[in-house]
Amino acid sequence: MNIALDATPLTLTSGGLRRYVEELAPALAREYPEDDYTLLSDQNFTGPSAGNLHSLTRAVPRYWSWGIRKTLRETSVDVFHGTNFEVPYLGRTPAILTIHDLSPWKNPDWHVGASRVRQRTPWLVRFGRAKLILTVSEAMGREIASHFGISAEKIRAVPLAASSLFQPVEVATPPPCPYFLFLGTLEPRKNLGALLEAWQAIRETSGAELWIAGRQRADFVPLPEIPGLRRLGEVSDAELPALYAGALAFVYPTHYEGFGLPVLEAMQCGCPVITSADAAVTEVSGGAALHVSDTRALAEAMSAVSGSEEQRRHLAQAGILRSRSFSWQHTARKTHVVYEEALGK
């Protein structure tokens, strides 16, 4: 097969959307060397490459309505995989559409700049432009079927995985004081206000700082200057395992997720996880994390974990065991089955 994947998420510097494409594409290329894979976008991007994995940028007018159709014909693409809520509006090339979550529709305040997604994706779904819908958790599959009013038979849930770079490591230089860690895109949906409030409530008794790492989106209200709060900004992949490994716990009080990839990354590094009771995150953790439903419970969980080495060890071991249920090889194989279904194989 000749498969094209939308490479637009690779224009981002970090985050779950970028991780999805940069891990899935090479995994597919490794697992299916007889296929050809092309990362395709109308914008410049940086991404992985291999013998049967190529990159192509076509900056043409009316890309999604006309330009991409011409490119798919010229490159003899069999299936197009829209990795980011979008597929070509018209054309005969079978298309697969990944819907990561319903956050653009759940709360417009979570995605101020997502008006195009809110308008175009329902049209693409309801008029059947995508042969099948891919999503990243069973919980999200149920939500998508209900929200768009489509049959569950058209939806395929294929879980993500943590990159192999996330492994337990020995921290060469211990931090000057213990710290809780949040890592992810800084955006309204992540509920960092509750995290800040919970941490301040137990900071004195725990003696722990709060470290915040990740790309800050334009619609995120910057955090105040508070002693003990460290804002690390974007952190390179090479630094992430040690950052997870050195933390008392990874704290991720998100309002809503389609999967919650940072939770799995932390668990794979052997970092205890405290997170919300969101359905998808709960599905991913599989009982290997502490789930809380409000700010008071969050503070209590942070206090308990900081004060108990035994509980931290238990959560770390449970997280490592749970993370072994996921791999990009598995994700690639299940995704490839969906490509074959789209072609009627």
In short:
39% of the residues lie in helices and 17% in strands. It has 345 residues and is an alpha/beta fold. Strand 11, helix 8 and strand 12 form a beta-alpha-beta unit.
The helical percent reads 25-40%
Task: Please state the structural category.
Answer: alpha/beta
Q: State the order of secondary-structure elements, H for helix, E for strand.
A: EHEEHEEHHEHEEHEEHEHEHEHHH
Q: How many runs of DSSP E, i.e. beta strands? A: 13
What do you see in this structure?
With 345 residues, the chain is of the alpha/beta class. It folds into two domains: 2-161 and 327-342, Glycogen Phosphorylase B (Rossmann fold, 3-Layer(aba) Sandwich), CATH 3.40.50; 179-323, Rossmann fold (3-Layer(aba) Sandwich). Helices cover 39% and strands 17% of the residues. It has a seven-stranded parallel β-sheet, sandwiched between helices. Strand 8 (179-183), helix 6 and strand 9 form a beta-alpha-beta unit. Helix 6 runs parallel beside helix 10 and helix 8 packs across helix 11 (309-323). The longest helix has 16 residues, at 16-31. The chain is globular, with a radius of gyration of 21 Å. The mean pLDDT is 95.
